[in-house]
Amino acid sequence: MKILNLYAGIGGNRRLWGNQHDITAVEINPKIAEIYKENFPNDKIIIADAHQYLLEHFEEFDFIWSSPPCPSHSKVRKATHQQNKPIFPNMELYEEILFLKGYFKGKWVVENVIPWYEPLIKGKKIGGHLYWSNFIINEMKGYGSREHDSGIEVLQKRKGFDLSKYEGIDKKLVLRNCVESEFGLHILESSTNKIQKTLI
């Protein structure tokens, strides 16, 4: 398939997809994009605004994965609003869901946190996140803790990335932003009607 991986980060969702697909990843941060490229040299990596790229290029792909920024929807951020200035929820999340639902002919999934408010569009809960898609995501069991309160070494092991040689990035934040690769594989296989084994 031709896959578009939006807000790609370092590629947590993509890590177990293999190299049989033609994958384009869009990431706005050049340092993060560099890490992605080193881990997935066969992918085409574009440094750009993923929201705008989706609008301009959606028809070129068979499968689209989008993981828009989540802080404005986060329960944790809202709960600590004394330390974090209140901000408007970023409605680009819902713009993309509606846009893909209305215009894209292929398979798509949008991932984000379970928000502090009642979601404006109902999604499927998997672990601590919501997924919106135009295909049935098979049930998952045994996904366990995301270990987000752990140190960098534990997170690196959990997420499957070694960031020890990189400087100038918030490594803990980058790792916490990674979608678990097991989820990424499970959802991709759900989109092609393959049965995913129970996660360990």
How many helices in DSSP terms?
7
Query: What is the helix content?
Result: 25-40%
| CATH architecture title | 3-Layer(aba) Sandwich
Question: Widest sheet: strand order?
Answer: 3-2-1-4-5-7-6
Structural account:
This protein is an alpha/beta fold and 200 residues long. The protein has one domain: Rossmann fold (3-Layer(aba) Sandwich). It has seven helices and seven strands. It has a seven-stranded mixed sheet with strand order 3-2-1-4-5-7-6, with helices on both faces. It is globular, with a radius of gyration of 16 Å. The model is unreliable at 195-200 (pLDDT under 50).
Summary of the model, kept short:
This protein has 200 residues and is of the alpha/beta class. The chain has helices at 30-39, 50-57, 75-79, 92-103, 152-159, 171-176, 181-191, and strands at 2-6, 22-26, 44-46, 63-66, 107-113, 124-126, 129-133.
Give a topology summary.
Blueprint lengths: L1 E5 L15 E5 L3 H10 L4 E3 L3 H8 L5 E4 L8 H5 L12 H12 L3 E7 L10 E3 L2 E5 L18 H8 L11 H6 L4 H11 L9
Parallel strand pairs: 1-2, 1-4, 2-3, 4-5
Antiparallel strand pairs: 5-7, 6-7
Summary tags:
200 residues; alpha/beta; Rossmann fold; 7-stranded mixed beta sheet; 7 helices; 7 strands; globular; disordered C terminus
